[in-house]
Fold this sequence. Notes:
The chain is mostly helical.
Amino acid sequence: MQNIGKRxxxxxxxxxxxxxxxxxxxxxxxxxxxxxETGMSSPDLSLIRPLTKLLHVTADxxxxxxxxxxxxxxxxxxxxxSTYTTGDLGERWSIANLAVSEYPGNLKCLSWLxxxxxxxxxxxxxxxxxxxxxxxxxxxxLSERVLEDCEDKEIRNHMLSNIVVCLSELGRRDEARxxxxxxxxxxxxxxxxxxxxxxxxxxLVRHHQEQIKNALENxxxxxxxxxxxxxxxxxxxxxxxxxxxxxxxxxxxHLARLAIDQAxxxxxxxRYDEAVTALEKAKYHSSEYDAIDLPENRGVYHxxxxxxxxxxxDTRERCVSGTSTMMADFxxxxxxxxxxxxxxxxxxxxxxxxxx
Length: 356
């Protein structure tokens, strides 16, 4: 731990505060501030929180506690982050629990557990719905505990989004909205738009293409959340318009999920032949996505469509929530869905059950 007086002096100057002004804000004499900075005395514990707010730092930063200098903490953090590329949710939950046990009261570790707890809840579906709800409730409690004391904006935002998702799945949507409204508003003109003024030539073209890809992903996610045949067909049409050459790269994942939803909607409408055709599309796109996303296949893949041909996707860096493949999900999760019961005696549906 560094000398707190030295830290106060450094941070005071960084925030363009005089000793007198800091003293006035804290309700103490400027002589007291001077004594802190010269090491003659230390601020009372009751002043630590006000100091962190005035100096715009966390308590750890004020006290000079270098969290990242702890090699064990760094090791745990690296282990935890690695699960976002392996998709091993059980390992993520185990590491988060271990981190909390070794670093009690550490809000970053607690945020890891709150996040991992959400995915852990799914281990109890569909057989133990009450346990599933209890695990989601625990995720909410942990997230709220982090919010009470954490001042790190990134962690706070993540906990807010976690609470919103959990409460929504628990059916407590009015409560979820309260938290959702605390999330920072996204401005129409932000960093990505501002960067357009700073780039030229190929860099500018690549930047705009990245914006197109990100906007396309966001639009597909929004349309897919509507849960209607029209929205699904619209999302599919937009993807194929932006990527007319069929080299969809990561958008195979979107097209596979869209095709599943399309098949469900068509089945409900009694349009069985069209539903099976949609499932055939889902199978194709699932296979194509696995071809770039399986651990042994991960690497750098390039778009070739005119609007995206300057950018690439590194599937080694994609965040993964689970170790199952899309083809495994197709056979083991989607095809058994009760929605497709009217199709099971059809020959073209039975052919879908045949694994390549």
